[in-house]
Amino acid sequence: MKIIKKNVFEGLVDELIENDEREIIGVQSKDSKYVFDRLEKAEGLELDYDVTILPPKKYFMPQRETLVEYETREGLEMEPVNEVIPRIIIGIHPYDLEAIKQMDKVFADSPKDSNYLEKRENSVLIGVNMQQTSDWSFAGSMGTATVDDGYDLMLTDLGKKYAVEIGSSKGSDLLEKISEDVRDASPEEIDKVEKAKEEIKDEFDKELDFSPQKLPSLLADTYDQDDFWEENAEDCYSCGTCNIVCPTCYCFDVQDFSDISLEEGERMRQWDGCMLEAFAEVAGGENFREERAERYRHRYMRKGRYLYNRFGDIACVGCGRCSSQCVPDIADPTDIFNKLWRGKDE
Amino acid sequence: MNEEDSPYLPESATILNVKKMAENEKLFEIELDSGEALNHDPGQFVEVSVPGVGEVPISISSSPTKEGNSFELCIREVGNVTGVIHTLEKGDEIGIRGPYGEGFPVDELKGHDVIFIAGGLGIAPLRSLINYTLDRREEFEDVKILYGCKKPCELLYEDEVEEWREMDEIDYRETVDECPDDVCWEGNVGVITTLIPGVDIDLDNSYTVVCGPPIMYRFVLQELKEKKVPDERIYLSLERRMKCGVGKCGHCQINGKEGEFYVCQDGPVFNYDVVKDFEEAL
Amino acid sequence: MKPEERPKAAFFDFAGCEGDQLQVANLEEKILDLLNIVELVSFREVMTEHSDDYDVAFIEGSITNSHDAERLNGIRENADVLVAIGACATIGGINSIRNVQDFEKVQERVYGDEREHYEAWEKAKPAKAVVEVDYEVHGCPIDREEFLHVVQSVVMGREPNIPDHPVCVECKLNENVCAFERDEFCVGPVTRAGCDSCCVNEGAICWGCRGLIDNPNEEAHEEVLEEYGLTAEEVIKKFDLYFAWQQEAREDE
After folding, report:
1. What was the ipTM of the complex prediction?
2. What is the DSSP pairing of strand A87-92 with strand A123-128?
3. Which of B8, B154, B239, C120 could form a disulfide with A67 if both were Cys (CB 3.0 to 4.6 A apart)?
4. How many CB atoms lie within 10 A of CB A22?
């Protein structure tokens, strides 16, 4: 563990903004909320934030992204496209680091998705331990309030200084630039960091009443409680908000766009959501998940069970974005999971 | 970006032949511009691209045993992409990705009777396996084909069906849901399930392979159950919405109390015993 | 496309502000792209010539009296393809606010003492309530890119790609702070996307100009609006700006 003064860290960030070829991204405020966005100056950083509107996933899998370009003037020509902008992303909370680890597995699964992986490989992740928590978060219950890996550098606020844990050579390379101002942490400072990490786990208002490891079997047992799913889905808009703001949702739609001459164009992917009505509809009109309740159940099953079956991770990291942004307030995983848990023996 | 790196980049291919088969269906013979064979298994599918319009998953309708390196797709006009494909002609270029998915378990079927039950466009994926068994007839025991469609004019692969009718080495039966008075039709009239009771099925030695519209499965499976056909001896080919074909986009997932499947990777061919309890499967 | 193969296109306006045609006139250099695929024979905002020989008719504005209806029927007979552009033509638009008001008062407010000289329907209607409409370009005003996309689809005989999900999708993709989190109210959760949530991007709210999605959860939205402190009357007003005709049509179904 290393220690640097906050003003040194800010100087490093300004130096990177000024001279590094990479794009520097940091958490900033937007109206009353926070977002990851391109940083103009280090003083714009808001590392004492609760949660961002969208997770940092957008830098590896953008909301809209070109996969293939084509032209048809002299026969059909198709080229793969991957717009990779190397980036340093500052201020990622532990639950989002966990989500990125999960997405890395999804996109590295054969066949590899190079559009994601190349962007990911060209990114440096600077995490920050939470100082405040979102009212809707339950990262403490999901074991994602802190992480041991998944970052290149990890910051912990110690008043006028940051404790810095180094996760990779990409991270240590950054510290090289300010090596004179970096020192080893003292035993007391290490204790302080450990204590801060322990304490944050109890700072969450929302909680899961049981171990998240029990989710896959709980969800298998409650899959066919149709009345429960229908009742809870009644007020669902099918607006996809809970999907789009989720750090572990990665479903996408693919569409072609051509210029008006119809001679050239591109094939783009865009974030999609399993809550949207047309998600499972085929040409010809058959919709394999037509009811709101079926789609509503599908999301919870996917978070707590299906992706676990496939990749071994509980795919909810407890960030609380889905519930905080759901207008009819029906998307809170702790509410649904706890109700299922309480009702399982009835 | 390296071309081999993108699973989303189609290979260019050229249409060698187009044949109208029915009011809404055409058969396209296609060859990859690389000149190489597609190397598919019966039952697998490809993603067909019309740049500027989009991509659609289409099951491969020809057998890998077919001569030459071309392959065939039977395409029904149901949307934008298939609508444009229907305007294409010999010599036009399209994009192809694949083959993808799990096809029919050909090796498991060898040495057994095979009963095909096809409804409407369901004949398209089955034809890849039907022609495989006909090309390697000695490797299979009895072959029976039950084929049904709504009206005689909707019958696909008419030339081949004509041959099947005449073949001694297979048992071919057909039916139409209804037949207009002015049309000559010598086959059965009634839904596909009406053909099943009359077929002898050697329960210990046969496999039944079913493909058709979603509504057809329930009735056919019910009929097979009455015949006491073991569930594990039934194979189905299912259709779902697909965007990527490679297990990423999430659209083709089928769920049930028991778990989930991705049609593009775990299917489109499934053993009935494996999927029968999945609420969203059938 | 060869110049002689281009379909002939004409614009017609009914009760509306002509803001949608203005969007088309404001395509600027892209208007040349448009002219590559259609031949304009009638468009009074940009040209003086007029011809009744056209293949594609673009209809702006809502239909508010029998004279309008007669004229629209004539256009329908004349055109191979009829495209409604803008909220007035697609869902009755702002004109349909009057559909839920006392008609005599509406007449008096507009025409005063002269009201008996003007024939007007009690309810404003979109084009599709009077004739068959082949394509629609939603919005108030329409989006220029979407207009071009629809024209391209008309020329190619394809289904245009018009979303059937709520504006919330685009609003979240654009990482906007939700209007409800700013203590405001909007109808984005039941309104058809495709506008790239342009109003909310600028700090405003969604008023629903692109009309309801095919299967909106209106009941849930009414409950939510009431929960957020709107009275039942305010909730209805919130919906009536653009949805008056649509809601009535849904009830009739």
Report:
1. 0.93
2. parallel
3. B8
4. 15
A126 lies in some domain? yes
* Selection from B274, B271, B279 nearest residue B102 by Cα: B271
Residue C62: what pLDDT? 97
Chain B hits for C158, CB-CB cut-off 8 Å, are 53, 80, 83-84
What span, in angstroms and rounded, lies between the C-alpha atoms of C237 and C247? 12
- 8 A C-beta contact, residue A279 and residue B255: no
Chains A and C form CB pairs within 8 A to the count of: 95
What pLDDT score does B2 carry? 52
Q: Tell me if C120 is assigned to some domain.
A: yes
**Is residue C217 a contact partner of residue A238, using CB atoms and an 8 Å limit?**
yes
**How many domains is chain A built from?**
2
pLDDT for the residue numbered B4: 57
pLDDT of residue A346: 63
Closest CA in chain A for residue B56: A283
- Which residues, at least 6 apart from A203, have a Cβ–Cβ distance to it below 8 Å? A130, A132, A133, A140, A145
CA C168 to chain centre: 19
- B84 interaction partners in chain C (CB closer than 8 Å): 156, 158
Partner B, chain C 8-67, Cβ-Cβ below 8 Å: none
How far apart are alpha carbons B204 and A310 in whole angstroms? 35
Residues of chain B predicted below pLDDT 70: 1-4
Residue B276 burial (C-beta neighbours within 10 Å; 0-12, 13-18, 19+): middle
User: Helices A215-222 & A333-343, crossing angle to 10 degrees?
Assistant: 70
Q: What is the C-alpha R_g of chain A? A: 22
Residues near C85 by Cβ (< 8 Å), separated by ≥ 6? Answer: C20, C21, C24, C58, C59, C60, C136, C137, C142, C147
Sheet holding B71-76, edge to edge: B54-59, B45-50, B93-100, B11-20, B25-32, B71-76
Percent of residues, chain A, with pLDDT higher than 90: 89
Which residue range is the domain that position C58 belongs to? Answer: 3-156
Domain B106-237 has CATH 3.40.50.80: yes
Residue C162 domain-assigned? no
**Nearest CA among C90, C66, C55, C75 for reference residue C12:** C75
